[in-house]
Amino acid sequence: MSFMFNPYPYDDPRAINHIHLNEEIKKTFTRNSMQTADKVASAINDMISKGKSCIVGIDGYISAPFEQFSGLVSLRLAQLFDVKATV
């Protein structure tokens, strides 16, 4: 329990864990809202093109701009795949 008497500061610069991942897994990561919306839109389009219906749930922090992101996904579905989404 020595950490209780000598705790690390909250922003400890040594607290970075470098994760080594397979390059194929790294390619699936998105870096911003547009890339994420495109990835979600593509997955939705894949399901729809197979004749399936699709309901999407988005989870995140309470302060996350869900309406903005769902609007972006809807927009990208229309732009990329000519698919109309109900938000």
- In terms of per-residue confidence, which ranges show pLDDT below 50 for 5 or more consecutive residues? none
* Helix count, DSSP H or I runs of 4 or more residues: 3
What kind of assembly state do the chains in view correspond to?
Answer: single chain
Helix-strand makeup class: mainly alpha
Percent strand equals under 5%
Order of helices and strands: HHH
Please state the CA-atom Rg, rounded to the nearest Å.
19 Å
Residue-averaged pLDDT: 87
Largest sheet: none
Strand tally: 0
What is the global morphology?
elongated
Give the termini separation: 51 Å
Helix content: 40-55%
Question: In terms of topology, how is this protein built?
Answer:
Elements: H1 23-26, H2 33-49, H3 66-81
Please outline what is shown here:
Helices cover 43% and strands 0% of the residues. The protein is mostly helical and 87 residues long. The protein has a domain at 32-87.
Describe this protein's structure.
The protein has 3 helices and no strands. Helices cover 43% and strands 0% of the residues. Helix 2 (33-49) packs across helix 3 (66-81). It is elongated, with a radius of gyration of 19 Å. By secondary structure, the protein is mostly helical. The protein has a domain at 32-87.
Key descriptive features of the protein:
87 residues
